[in-house]
Each structure stands twice: as structure tokens, then as C-alpha cells.
Design a protein that fits this description.
770 residues, alpha+beta, Immunoglobulin-like, six-stranded antiparallel beta sheet, globular, disordered C terminus
Length: 770
């Protein structure tokens, strides 16, 4: 720890590039007047927002006593966090002011003109160029202060018009150690790739007041349970094109609402010059992607979502940045160690991208301000932080298997600077935006990840439960006979106490080319020929549809306090996602073939899920019913959860969440008459969801009018029980009559099973085992 501690402190020893209160001058010696004393709005004055001071950071030891064995590292981490908060208070006037860097850096417009500032300590000279001065590098020379911050003030024209027109192109021209370069300003709010051109251009985006979008609807309150629809604007069209914010607003948002989700998570918002990166190689962090429309178009989309009662979560990328030198931050001031670590430490060898130096003062300002910008300017309701595992460890989680041993989390492999940044950004978000949601993509299982910063945690609200999707793919490669019921239960419930998780059976990762969706693993090429209802089904299709529904319901039922689905997967979208790409020539002469820059597999065929003549419709109807069931009963966040049965021989799983009893029969050809299932509360139970309903592509083997009465007496460690019919490959949810609702399916049952004593299982030929 001593050696590591010395290294960490040395990396931290950089003088804060503190901004003064005076717009015209930077003070080197004196601590600045806090920005919030100068820059304020009527809204902020009416409702002051503040970030609570650090707490003791000790409650985590009460929650998880195992952490006491690693107290030296954890206390050191918290001390680093507290020291950073103190320094930000001292030099910047607090985290609230520090996180408003966009009010000082980049372009700011006042009554007298436009000020442009840029942090580029490696540059030898700098000038602002663009359409406004005919790209003349000698016209508007910038001045540098001792902190490496370049500045220029452009007064209004004599007629009072702004010196730079809204929508015109701008760049910063610099003489750097690597030569002369023209770069898009780091804090640019919009950038566009002109037709026929390769590089992007920064756009001065400042529309007249009458043209700016004005939000009309309040942001929804954070729901108790999250049901997230993961989406990508560009590929959300049914046509092979890049879709727009406006079309997504008008066509996709109503669909999401109808399906029963209460949040939409949007990928690829931050500008990225390479479309096929799925938005994860960001070039312009403050600019919404221009492929889909303008910043005001995005605001309109978010406002419409709020009108529908949907939270809008942004997939934010602070774990790395594009290595693009022309359009992005890489080598911005001509040096390797500007926003990033130098040398190999600053390069992600697998992602071919740059890695931020979270110990740098100005990098902290940039990233904290970036998170706040999207919440403040665009009214996003929170974030899914991408690639957090890569941030928290110097090995980035590559070629490492996490076993759960706490030595893997608290040692020399931990990047304390990155963890402290995550604590700061969660502190800022939750302090200033109490209703905002933060979700971290972490595969390592880092303890304290979803505990409050005040208590010593990292501060996220949710962790993405990534192991569940991996487990389903692992099982789908095996025969049904080789599935282990206990293994499924363990994976679904293996999460830390008091740390909430978002569960998912599959996300965009499984839909990408090179991988397979669950539907494709299950049904493969039969999906191309046997999904029409006017054609006979196959054993593979019957099995696939049945298991597709069961996998999703049990994932939602046991996997966490939130649920996520990637758009189109709710109805088993066929094939994969393949972004348009040309042939790629490698330095060694090898050629990786592209797809002819085709958009054919970079779209979502929502029409398949809507078609009443296709079997996709049944899977979509089931997913919709599942979401509405959770909306009604709130079972994901119920304090009552009990797994009463996980029988390997019968392939049965029975559990309770809230007043619901879930019964899963994973057996491929055995159905069970009068199967006894335990329950907690006495009374009458009725079916509220049945995967075997014909509406969902099932075989109609259950009577939705049947009533199930509990009997006293202990069974499966439950004080009561009742008898059910459990057909093969089905999932059925029973609810107490006090919570009574009609079954979600609309079809009329054809069979009626009466309650009698338990009997032997019945082997069926329908549906067939494949």
C-alpha cells in the first residue's frame, strides 16, 4: 500500500487550473471567487441547489463487515475523495461551481460579444478560425495564461450583431509540438460532417431566442422500479436509413410507452465520427450526434418522452475516448498526455481508444461539467455509465476473471483516481438532481458500488447485472437436459445486499454482428421460414418461443430491482446488427471485408412484432404483458422475495415476490397435474400471467377462470400451499384475489383442470422436444 500510495499522490500533484471570477483575467495565486456568486439564473436563484459535504464514509463496514479486512485501502480511497472535495472547495468555490465549466470554457455569449476559451497547455500558439474570419489564422490570435488556458474575446459587430453567426463553422488553429493542426473545440456544442467530406467541423450553435426549443413538460419522478427500453436513434427506423430524433420522437416513443416500459435509455448521443462504433468512440463530448438532427430536435424528443411519463437515460461514455486526432480530443494540443495518460497507460489496446487521466484537475472539470451539461441543458433524467469496469482497474478487466475475492477489488490493480472521479460525479448528480438515476456498467462486482458516497460507497443507484446475459448464452449452447436449475437461480440472485441491480436477458451486446440474440440462439434459421402463422410450426420454433418468454420473465422476476431490454428483442428480432462499413485495409496488407456500406441490418423491423400473421407478435404481446404486470404489482422492488422450490428432477422453480407466486416448468416434455406450490398468505389465487396463452403463441393448456385456494400446512418451508397444473415449458404467475386482476391474455381457455390430490407427471408430445 505504501508504494501505491506514493504513486497515487505523485499523480495527483498538479496545480488546479482555477478560473477566476473575472471574465477577462485568470488569477494564478489567489483562490478564485466561486463561480456561482457571479453566474446565476433566475431558476437557480429561485431554487438553490447544493451538494452535501462528505460524510464519515464508515457505514459500509456495518453493511458488509468483510470490508473491515480491507479498511486501509477503502479509508485511503475515501480520504482521497474528501481531499479532492476540499481542494475543489478551496480553488473553485465548490463542486457545484466546478461542474459548470461549460459556462467558462468553449464559447460563451454575452451582451458585448463572444468569449472563447480552451485548455491546451502543449500548444505554442493558438488562433480561432472559421467562416466568420474566412479561416484566417492571423486574424484572431488567442492569448495564453500560465495554466495553459487560451482565450479570445470577439466584440459584437458595429451594428450589434454577434461576431460569429449561428450555424457557422469554427475550429482552433494551433502550433503544437506535433506540428500545425486545426481542431474542433473540445467544448463544442455541435459538430457536423459535411457531405463528401471526411473530417467534422465544429459548429457555433447559438440560435436566436425565438428559435430555441422551450421545454413544456415536467420531468417525471424517479419510479420505484425501472423498466428500461434500450435504444439507438439512428437504427430505430424500419427502413435501411439513419433515423432522426424527430422520427424517434413520433414513432418509437409511443411504442415504448404502449409496451409498458417507464424509461428509455438512448445510446450514441455524444458525437462520434465513426458510426459503427455504436457511439462508444466519442469525439465531441458536449455535442449531440448531428446524424440524427439538431440539438433542439433532441430536446423535443426528450420533452415528448417526459410528456409520456418516460424517464430518458443517456448512455454516457467517460471511460475512454476516440483516438481520432482530426475530430476528437486525442493529441488535441499536440501532446500525448493532455486529457489522457501518456504512453501505454493512456491507450486501451482492445478498444483502440484513449484513456482519461482522472487525476488531472482539468480532466475532472471537463468530465464533471459534461455530465451536468446533459442533465441541465437537455433535461436527461440520468445516465448509464459505460465501461466502468475498465475505469476502475488498471488492467481494465481484460484477461481477468473476477471470482469475488475482495483482494481483486482493493489492491494495486485498482485505479483510485478513477474511483474517486466516480464518487465525485455521483455526488454531483445526486446532490444537484435528486431524482436523477445513475447506472454503472460493471462486470467485476465491486463491493460498495451501489452504496451512497456519504456511507463510503461509489454512489451508483444501480449496477448492470451483466452476468445474467452471459449465463443465458452459456446455457443456450447446451441441451435442455444439461441445464442446472440451481445454477440459474444462483446467477439470478447473486447480488450484494442493499445494492440494486438492473437485470437483462440480453442487451445490444448480444445483438451485434458476431454474436446472437436469444431468439436466434433458440430458433436459428427456422426463423426465416416458419414464423408465419399460416405455416406449420417446427419443434425448434415451439421450443424457442416458449423459452424466449420464460427466460425474460424469470430474469425480470428474480434478477434485480430493474429490468432492461434492447429495442426489438422483445419480439425476438431476427438476425443481428451490422453497421454500414466498407472494406478495411490493415497495415499488414490484410483486408477485412465490409458489407458494402449497407444499412439493411442496421434497422429495427418493428413491423414484424406488430404483424398479427407472424409468431413474432405473440412474443411481443408477452413482453408487453410482463411489463404491465410489473407496473401493476411492483414485484421487482417488493421487500418480500422467497424461493420455495428449485427442483432439478422436475425442472421446476417456484418463488414469491410480493403477493405474486411465480411457477416455472423448464421441463421439455413433462407437465404436472395438481402440483403443490408453497405460498405465504392465505386466500384465493388466480392466474394473472400465463406464457401458454394463445395470445402469446402458447398452447392454451390453462383455464384462466380457475380459482386456487390455499391450504394450511407447511410445504417447501412455506406455511401454506395450493395445487396447480404446470404444463411443460411454461411460466405462470398467480396473484392473491385481494390484488386480483384479469389475466393479461385475451384468449378463451379450452381446458379446465380441477384441484385434486398430487399426481404423477404426465408426459406430453406437444410441444415437442427438439
Amino acid at each position: 500500500m505504501k508504494d501505491n500510495e506514493k504513486v497515487e499522490v505523485e499523480e495527483q500533484e498538479s496545480v488546479p487550473y482555477a478560473l477566476a471570477n473575472n471574465d477577462e483575467e485568470f488569477h494564478a495565486k489567489e483562490p478564485p471567487i466561486p463561480l456561482h456568486r457571479k453566474v446565476s439564473t433566475a431558476k437557480s436563484e429561485a431554487k438553490p441547489r447544493s451538494i452535501p459535504p462528505p460524510g464519515a464514509g464508515k457505514r459500509i463496514y456495518e453493511i458488509d463487515p468483510t470490508l473491515l479486512g480491507f479498511r486501509e485501502h477503502i479509508d485511503y480511497r475515501y480520504a482521497r475523495y474528501k481531499r479532492m472535495r476540499e481542494e475543489i472547495d478551496k480553488y473553485e468555490g465548490g463542486l457545484e461551481a466546478f461542474s459548470r465549466g461549460y459556462e467558462k470554457f468553449g464559447f460563451t455569449h454575452s451582451e458585448k460579444g463572444i468569449t472563447y476559451r480552451e485548455w491546451a497547455p502543449g500548444a505554442k500558439s493558438a488562433a480561432l478560425i472559421g467562416d466568420f474570419n474566412n479561416w484566417n489564422p492571423n486574424a484572431d490570435i488567442m492569448t495564453r495564461n500560465e495554466f495553459g488556458i487560451w482565450e479570445i474575446f470577439l466584440p459584437n459587430n458595429v451594428d450589434g450583431s454577434p461576431p460569429i453567426l449561428h450555424g457557422s463553422r469554427v475550429k482552433i488553429h494551433m502550433e503544437t509540438p506535433s506540428g500545425i493542426k486545426d481542431s474542433i473545440p473540445a467544448w463544442i456544442k455541435f459538430s457536423v460532417q459535411a457531405p463528401g467530406e471526411i473530417p467534422y467541423n465544429g459548429i457555433y450553435y447559438d440560435p436566436p431566442e425565438e428559435e430555441k426549443y422551450v421545454f413544456k413538460h415536467r420531468q417525471p419522478k424517479r419510479p420505484k422500479s425501472l423498466r428500461i427500453y434500450e435504444s439507438h436513434v439512428g437504427m430505430s427506423s424500419m427502413e435501411p436509413i439513419i433515423n432522426t430524433y424527430a422520427n424517434f420522437r413520433d414513432d418509437v416513443l409511443p411504442r415504448i410507452k404502449r409496451l409498458g416500459y417507464n424509461a428509455v435509455q438512448i445510446m450514441a448521443i455524444q458525437e462520434h465520427s465513426y458510426y459503427a462504433s455504436f457511439g462508444y468512440h466519442v469525439t465531441n463530448f458536449f455535442a449531440p450526434s448531428s446524424r440524427f438532427g439538431t440539438p433542439d430536435d433532441l430536446k423535443s424528443l426528450i420533452d415528448r418522452a417526459h410528456e409520456l411519463g418516460l424517464l430518458v437515460l443517456m448512455d454516457i461514455v467517460h471511460s475512454h475516448a476516440s483516438n481520432n486526432v482530426l475530430d476528437g480530443l486525442n493529441m488535441f494540443d499536440g501532446t500525448d498526455a493532455h486529457y489522457f495518460h501518456s504512453g501505454s497507460k493512456g491507450h486501451h489496446w482492445m478498444w483502440d481508444s484513449r484513456l482519461f487521466n482522472y487525476g488531472s484537475w482539468e480532466v475532472l472539470r471537463f468530465l464533471l461539467s459534461n455530465a451536468r451539461w446533459w442533465l441541465e441543458e437537455y433535461k436527461f433524467d440520468g445516465f448509464r455509465f459505460d465501461g466502468v469496469t475498465s475505469m476502475m482497474y488498471t488492467h481494465h478487466g481484460l484477461q481477468v476473471t473476477f471470482t469475488g475475492n475482495y483482494n481483486e477489488y482493493f489492491g494495486y490493480a485498482t485505479d483510485v483516481d478513477a474511483v474517486v472521479y466516480l464518487m465525485l460525479v455521483n455526488d454531483m448528480i445526486h446532490g444537484l438532481y435528486p431524482e436523477a438515476v445513475t447506472i454503472g456498467e460493471d462486470v467485476s462486482g465491486m463491493p460498495t458500488f451501489c452504496l451512497p458516497v456519504q456511507d463510503g460507497g461509489v454512489g451508483f443507484d444501480y449496477r448492470l447485472q451483466m452476468a445474467i446475459a452471459d449465463k443465458w448464452i452459456e446455457l443456450l449452447k447446451k441441451r435442455d437436459e444439461d441445464w442446472k436449475i440451481g445454477d440459474i437461480i444462483h446467477t439470478l440472485t447473486n447480488r450484494r445486499w442493499l445494492e440494486k441491480c438492473v437485470a437483462y436477458a440480453e442487451s445490444h451486446d448480444q445483438a451485434l454482428v458476431g454474436d446472437k440474440t436469444i431468439a436466434f440462439w433458440l430458433m436459428d434459421k427456422d426463423m426465416y421460414e416458419f414464423m408465419a402463422l399460416d405455416r406449420p410450426s417446427t419443434a425448434l420454433i415451439d421450443r424457442g418461443i416458449a423459452l424466449h418468454k420464460m427466460i425474460r420473465l424469470i430474469t425480470m422476476g428474480l434478477g434485480g430491482e430493474g429490468y432492461l431490454n434492447f429495442m426489438g428483442n422483445e419480439f425476438g428480432h431476427p438476425e443481428w446488427i451490422d453497421f454500414p462499413r466498407g472494406d478495411q485495409c490493415l497495415p499488414n496488407g490484410m483486408v477485412i471485408p465490409g458489407n458494402g456500406n449497407s444499412y439493411d441490418k442496421c434497422r429495427r423491423r418493428f413491423d414484424l412484432g406488430d404483424a398479427d400473421y407472424l409468431r413474432y407478435r405473440g412474443m411481443q404481446e408477452f413482453d408487453q404483458a410482463m411489463q404491465h404486470l410489473e407496473a401493476k404489482y411492483g414485484f421487482m422492488t417488493s421487500e418480500h422475495q422467497y424461493i420455495s422450490r428449485k427442483n432439478e428432477g422436475d425442472r421446476m422453480i417456484v418463488f414469491e415476490r410480493g403477493n405474486l407466486v411465480f411457477v416455472f416448468n423448464f421441463h421439455w416434455n413433462k407437465s404436472y397435474f395438481d402440483y403443490r406450490v408453497g405460498c405465504l398468505k392465505p386466500g384465493k389465487y388466480k392466474i394473472v400471467l400465463d406464457s401458454d396463452d394463445p395470445l402469446f403463441g402458447g398452447f392454451n393448456r390453462l383455464d384462466h377462470n380457475a380459482e386456487y385456494f390455499s391450504a394450511e400446512g407447511w410445504y417447501d418451508d412455506r406455511p401454506r400451499s395450493f395445487l396447480v397444473y404446470a404444463p411443460s415449458r411454461t411460466a405462470v404467475v398467480y396473484a392473491l384475489v385481494e390484488d386480483e386482476s384479469k389475466p393479461v391474455g385475451k384468449s378463451e381457455p379450452v381446458e379446465n383442470f380441477e384441484t385434486v390430490e398430487e399426481a404423477e407427471p404426465v408426459e406430453e408430445s406437444e410441444p415437442l422436444d427438439c
